[in-house]
Amino acid sequence: MLKFLENQLIVSCQPCTGGPMDRPSIVAALACAAVEGGATAVRVEGIRNVEAVRAACDAPIIGIVKVDLADSPVRITPFTQNIRDLTAAGSDIIALDVTDRPRPERLEDLFQAIKFCGVLSMADCSCLADGEGALRFGADILATTMAGYTTPHTAPEPDLELVVKLAALGRFVIAEGRYNTPALAAAALAAGANAVVVGSAITRTEVVTGWFASAVKAGAKL
Ligand SMILES: CC(=O)N[C@H](C=O)[C@@H](O)[C@H](O)[C@H](O)COP(=O)(O)O
């Protein structure tokens, strides 16, 4: 699986929550379109969406569940039950938030559940220490997904420095988070990532339209 993903583009098919494209049939169409365009794998949120994508295309699926908890800031795949459900729905890889923040279940138990389910684990890190911790639990993939998201202000640029640091740990590294142009996606691989995930710039029409709308408004003022 990791050989198959080497030097490849992975597309995150997560429409804006509650938006007009937030439906399993549309997520499945986005995934098929991404594969037609050259993506090798897709990242998909939610059990119904993973099921719909699995039924529509053969590409490897990185499955996640996002849960909003009252007593924890951890949102991405916080429960072992999420892992069992994502596996049953057809995920090949399961990604989870591995940041050092209060969480409802122990990371050790989550990684054990992933191993027990026979799928690969992808550790969504915010910093080098997250990656080092995830390695101790046997993470198969280290990713930069959470870089810039554990403090209130999201950085505008992707965290290429974290790619370099994680790559030095010697595990398969996926760059993810704000790779909003082809040049930035290519820069991730040049920095040492084994693959790159692009989401918003390909599959969040509202976000991309917003970028253009702001630029057009700013241009009109000149
Ligand atoms: C921080 C967090 O919750 N990230 C989520 C992870 O699944 C998604 O909302 C992102 O869209 C995804 O990581 C891809 O990143 P970008 O959309 O920037 O290409």
UniProtKB/TrEMBL annotation:
The lineage of its organism: Bacteria, Pseudomonadati, Pseudomonadota, Alphaproteobacteria, Rhodobacterales. Keywords: Carbohydrate metabolism, Isomerase. Converts N-acetylmannosamine-6-phosphate (ManNAc-6-P) to N-acetylglucosamine-6-phosphate (GlcNAc-6-P). Catalyzes the phosphorylation of N-acetylmannosamine (ManNAc) to ManNAc-6-P. One of its GO terms (molecular function) is N-acylmannosamine kinase activity. It comes from Parasedimentitalea psychrophila. This is Putative N-acetylmannosamine-6-phosphate 2-epimerase. Its EC number is 5.1.3.9. The gene is nanE. GO terms for biological process: N-acetylmannosamine catabolic process; N-acetylneuraminate catabolic process. The keyword Secreted does not apply.
